[in-house]
Amino acid sequence: MSISRRTARTARILGVASASAALAIGAAGNALACQIGDFSAEAKCDGGKGVIVVTDKDATRVPAIITVFLENNGADAKQVGKPEHLKGSATGATVGFAEDWQPNATYRVHVKAGGKVVDEDITPNLTTPSTACQASAPSTPAAPSKSASPTPSKPASKTPQDNATPTPSTSQSSTAPAGTTRNAPSPAAGDSNLAETGADSNTGLIAGIAAALVAVGGGAVFFGMRRRGASTGR
Residue 197 above 60 pLDDT? Predict the structure, then answer.
């Protein structure tokens, strides 16, 4: 059975369209697949300590294994830590490797994802900054202000009035004013000026004067009576 030209032309058109669609689907698949360009690495400082951070921006979230090596003259000097698992995201997922990196050091970061979809290094190799991480200075407690420290109170100094012996007031004085005998103690019975006979020392003088007066009076009476008798006898 012969094929008409129209049928052949239609078949060719459908074939070209199918091929174009296959190519478009393949390109789209490759664009969405995980690739090494989705990964990046950076040396950072975290609290004065070094860390190497790897970021995965694979929107398909293909699980990946990240391994980091310190390079020395183009060869691996050591492996940093252990391999870490990372599953990317459209915004970027990260994983960190603690490393006390030195300035201008070189690190090789290897990525293996999706079996054999990605199995290569991030290019170019990571070169650290020219300045090392600075350890944060320990915070020192603030010194207490002088006003906050308690000041010991000084003992009250004694004034001259406190040390002086209190003087009694005039009303409490035991010394009587001059010329007054109100407070003078009365003499005791044994301290009198009496003689051993018990009489005052002035009593003898008074008695002598009285005797003299009596004698004078008696003489005067005697002479008076005598003169009177003589006058009568004449």
Answer: no
**Burial degree of 51 (CB within 10 A; 0-12, 13-18, 19+):** middle
Comparing C-alpha atoms, which of 125, 151, 136, 24 is closest to residue 72?
A: 125
The one-letter amino acid code at 193 reads N
* Angstrom distance (rounded) from CA 230 to CA 234: 7
Contacts of residue 156, defined as CB under 8 A and 6 or more positions apart, other chains included, come to: none
CA–CA separation, 95 vs 78, rounded Å?
Answer: 19
Q: How many CB atoms lie within 10 A of CB 227?
A: 10
pLDDT tens per residue, range 131-160: 999 876 666 666 665 555 555 655 555 554
Cβ-count burial of 38 within 10 angstroms (0-12 exposed, 13-18 middle, 19+ buried)?
buried
CATH numbers and ranges of domains, the chain: 36-127 (2.60.40.2420)
Residue 216 is predicted with a pLDDT of 81
Write down the pTM of the prediction: 0.48
Which token pair is 172?
Answer: 């409490």
- List, in sequence order, every beta strand (DSSP E) within the chain: 39-46, 49-56, 63-72, 75-79, 84-87, 93-98, 106-113, 118-121, 126-127
Q: Distance of CA 196 to CAs 52, 147, 189, 193, 203, Å? A: 134, 89, 13, 10, 13
